[in-house]
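Q: Structure tokens for this one, please.
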Amino acid sequence: MTPNSLTRSTLMIATAALALGLAACGKKDDATASPSSDQAIAKIAPPAGKSWSETVVQTADGGYLAGNPNAPIKLLEYGSLSCPHCALLGAEADEPLMNDYIASGRVSWEFRSFAIHPQDVPLTVLAECGGKETFFPLVAQVYKNFDSMNEVLNDKAALERAQASGNLPPNKRFVALANALGYVDFFAKRGLPVDQANACLADANKAQKVADLATKYSNEGINSTPTLFINGSKVELSGGEEPWPQLEAALQRAGAR
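A: Here is the predicted structure, written as tokens:
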């Protein structure tokens, strides 16, 4: 069973009162030509004692931006932490994107977590729980371990516990949901203390924020994940090819070469 098999109705009771964005994982729209540059853009050195790949800020639109905030090439990604297509791209792209493109100062990468399935809510809350410095590494871990961490979706007893979490008050609902699906343990093994994780999940405002952003992105016309833009121009990935080489080629056409 893939994460898409965990339908909206299966766990909707656990996300009562949270309206998630109506988007599809992997759905494709008409392609828009990505920007191109005749000349390669020179690398941009970071401030003394700093690294662009470790420079992360939160954005006004609910995302996290890694790299040079003034980079001439701006990559924007709308991704779902429960989407296998996003996971395929993320698992391939994380290291070269961070180590080669972000580190060069020529490219910035803003990731906006788009909740399209109920399990996106606790996953996003946990990815954000450790602060901006750990956001990208934790997202990378979700994507790199996507198949193994989602094996729980074949466990009937775990799904029943997840379903039962919907009967709990808001401050306990997502704690129970995330523990039933093994998310708290997964993040604990990657440095996020259990008590801290449970405290973040118990804050209903954090979950509501994730849902509100999903509605915002959907209203702005984002209807699939991953959705990618380079300098405002949409980059369409062909489903018949590996995603990272396609995105890398688009970054290089934009001047990151």
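A few notes: The radius of gyration is 18 Å. The CA atoms of residues 11 and 163 lie 6 Å apart.
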